[in-house]
Amino acid sequence: MTRSRGKSSHTLKGWSPKSAYWFYAMAILVGLAFICWKVWELRTERLSRQWPTVSGKLLQSTVTETPGRDSHYRADVSYSYVVDGKSVLSHQISLWSKNLGGDYDSRGVVSTHPTGSTVDVFYEPGNPGNAVLVPGANEAEDKLFIGWGATCFAISILGAVRLYWRHRRGR
């Protein structure tokens, strides 16, 4: 703590107290936003396990490589199904990854769901166009983001409280 002409000049690595409070406030909001977003997403994805099912037909089931520096594979699927007499076409594999791109097992899904096969389609009641072949949540990823948000929130709260007390003692 340094004093300059009787005034407190507490800083957070060169920041004024006001700037530091704004930083902490924004970090608290970002942490809360991540927590709320991922808790809502986790809840929504888990509900898909309880959705009604119908039989559908896989029209396309292939693995595509996305070339480039960050090359990865994705599953490209198309399937049709009928709900309440209406034919629906979808390409979504799960709620947490539309095409299982990136690190997910796109090859495994395509090998167990070949073109022309019959599949169980889980569709959202009241919105039959929202359907998946793999219901449920990506629990690990959602919980990781919830933990990240909680960590950001907690560290920001502690930093703001510490800054408040340091600033208050300096008066």
Structure in words:
40% of the residues lie in helices and 28% in strands. The chain contains three helices and seven strands, in the order ββαβββαββα. It has a five-stranded antiparallel beta sheet with strand order 5-4-3-6-7. The model is unreliable at 1-11 (pLDDT under 50).
| Helix count, DSSP H or I runs of 4 or more residues | 3
Q: Which strand-content bin applies to the residues?
A: 25-35%
Low-confidence stretches: 1-11
Radius of gyration: 25 Å
In quaternary terms, these chains amount to single chain
Average of pLDDT: 81
Shape: elongated
Report the end-to-end length measured between terminal Cα atoms: 11 Å
Order of SSEs:
EEHEEEHEEH
> How many strands in all?
7
Strand order of the largest sheet: 5-4-3-6-7
Output the structural class.
Answer: alpha+beta
Helical fraction equals 40-55%
Largest sheet: 5 strands, antiparallel
Question: What's the quick description here?
Answer:
With 171 residues, the chain is of the alpha+beta class.
